[in-house]
Amino acid sequence: MEKADIGLIGLAVMGQNLVLNMADHGYRVAVFNRTISKVDDFISGPAKGASVIGTHSLEDLVAALERPRKVMLMVKAGEVVDHFIDMLLPLLEPGDVIIDGGNSHYPDSTRRTAYIREKGLRFIGAGISGGEEGARHGPSIMPGGDPEAWPLVKDIFQSIAAKVEGDPCCQWVGPDGAGHFVKMVHNGIEYGDMQLICEAYSLLGEALGMSCDRMREVFSQWNTGVLDSYLIEITADILGMKDADGEPLVDKILDTAGQKGTGKWTGISALDMGVPLTLIGEAVFARVLSSLKEERVRAAGLLGPRPDASPAGGEEDNIKAIHDALYASKIISYAQGFMLMYEAAKEQGWELDYGAIALMWRGGCIIRSKFLGNIRDAYKNNPRLENLVQDNFFTNALKTAEADWRKAVILAVENGIPVPAIASALAYYDGYRSERLPANLLQAQRDYFGAHTYERVDKPRGEFFHTDWTGHGGKVASTTYDV
Description:
The protein is α/β, with parallel strands linked by helices and 483 residues long. Helix content is 53%, strand content 8%.
């Protein structure tokens, strides 16, 4: 029997579609699933006639593979991945490759890279985005781990990945957990994009009184310009979907949002690294707040209805204001996400290619958009760019949008409509461009109650001072450190 080019474990939706994608591109794939019946059902169903080999044990799977063997895990992140790795190691040989294609936390991928390398094997932690459709027809793939493993899987991964202008949305990201870190940031940005769109939807519907059909027209129009993206496209589709009674389906969906943790991981990483990832943090907290449905209903009864302020200006002017607020806030969200990757690269010793990362997100993934081409160009012009807002394209875009951005936030405040992501993006913008912030007072407060010291504007950086604010505190200061 002809040997398989790669093996895949885990035949849930993503696993099945990746296998079929590989088979479509001329690769022979051996598959295994803990529930053996899923293997048989897959082989006799969706994979019937395809170059797919069904196996009923890990031993059979490994025996079916061409050397050096490549085994891809599409299983639940966490302990299950470690469990399969430990079962595979005795069956594999030095030089073989284990690939984790799940949504693993990047420190786990760093640990697994070292652990598997000690055993003489190679590991890849690959972030995969695009959902069911992307896996079947072309996802965005973000591989990291052992660089020696990349040439062994490069052709397969780049063949099945989405293509934009002929370029695959899959490039080597970096060592250890770099691939899953970039996927984590991708998911955090996804949280931000979705929350921003929801806030725009709320402003259009509640402040401007638009019907779902009218909002569908607006989002469809937005999708032809700078906001052209997958998430804007599907939002228009969602707003046009009717329930069995002819009413908009979206209005029948309970307003409590779920999450799987990657947005939270992004926020925690930002706090650990000291990066002001304010918008994504607000997007995560907005989902948490939405989950308090019963409590919110009680609070609505206690605190009364929202104010009802008539929007100033005509409808088209207000639509433009909301559009520009969404666009400007999106710029801030991506700027913060790339700041986080920039800081992680310094901390971990990674050489990340930010333009290539933007290109990998241009197609296949959930946040794919026209806008990412501008990010690629920004890093092509300056690979060491500190912050996207310093690029001329984005600087000019923010300046152009600023007046309407503020107008949209005012519209939200006057109508009692929460826009935490849009408002926090504006606050970040105002803070980032401020030569002076009130942190001087904060440092004085810290020195007053805790003798934490401060620096002075008329002295060199790195020289610290303490004041005896009360006259009886003495001259002893606390040590200086950063968390």
